Amino acid sequence: MNKSSMEPDDEFYVGYFPIAPGRYLRFSKRLAGLLLVGVLFLPAVLVLEQKRFATSTYEYGNLTELEGIITPLPVPTLKWVAGNDANGKPIYQSALLVNNLKFGADPVVASFAEKLGRPLAQTVVKIRGTLIYHDGITVLELTEGEKALLGVNEAKTSDNARTVQPVPADFGEVTLRGEIVDPKCYFGAMKPGQSKPHRSCAIRCISGGIPPVLAEQTAEGSTRYYLLTDENGNAIHREVLDYVAEPVQLKGRLTRRDDWYVLSFNPATGIERLSE
């Protein structure tokens, strides 16, 4: 057998031939090119298709001082006058209060009232904590516990304390759909702070006294938030644990107090799990 008989001069190809026939060579080059494109662009596509983290903020390590009146809504909330409307009436801004770690602020706020010896809803206090905020909602973590109370502003107390209690706007019976979240993590302390990856953490936060919030996606693509209470306006926690981080439908009475919507419903009959 001479050398010329070993050269692949037709479309039959054996791996030990030094040169592949034209058809095989062209196919191999095209395949290698496609694989190279895939290696370069597939990771980028996967990254772009992933859900973005929320643009929420947790000012960890940075303590902020705020002055206002602590009032139940039905959970502890610090309110202050942010300005006046066109009719000269005060516009209140509020920060939902939570405790350090995965606990609600009720015990700490109760210690404030005991220490001051007067109703908190009639006293302008100065407190210090860690701000958590996102999408127009503010949460204040009382990072130092009972030491978060810095004092009382007596001058502002005499001027503003009697006007802080709002008359709730009543929107009647409504049906809402969304996801029950814990506001501390959702608005900044954790990312992601919602859906199934965060379910176990949210359950611990809500069972620890942090108030549950319903996050509803509107038809316009924005998100609206509702504090959840029972039908009598009392705080709820364990009653909703089985529904946290899942699509749900709630039926109840909707009110608005200052800058918070509040949905009051019967936890036994007013909540329904939706299929995903």
Features of the shown structure:
elongated; 276 residues; 12 strands; alpha+beta; 5-stranded mixed β-barrel
Q: Main beta sheet, described?
A: 5 strands, mixed, barrel
Question: Spans of 5+ residues with little confidence (pLDDT < 50)?
Answer: none
Mean pLDDT comes to 85
| Tally of alpha and pi helices | 6
The end-to-end span amounts to 71 Å
Topology as a string of helices (H) and strands (E):
HHEEEHEEEHEHHEEEEE
Q: Report the β-strand fraction as a percent range.
A: 35-45%
Radius of gyration: 29 Å
Q: What structural class do the secondary elements suggest?
A: alpha+beta
What does this structure look like?
This protein is an alpha+beta fold and 276 residues long. It is 24% helix and 36% strand. The protein has six helices and twelve strands. It has a five-stranded mixed beta barrel. Strand 4 and strand 5 form a beta hairpin. The longest helix is centred in the N-terminal third of the chain and has 28 residues.
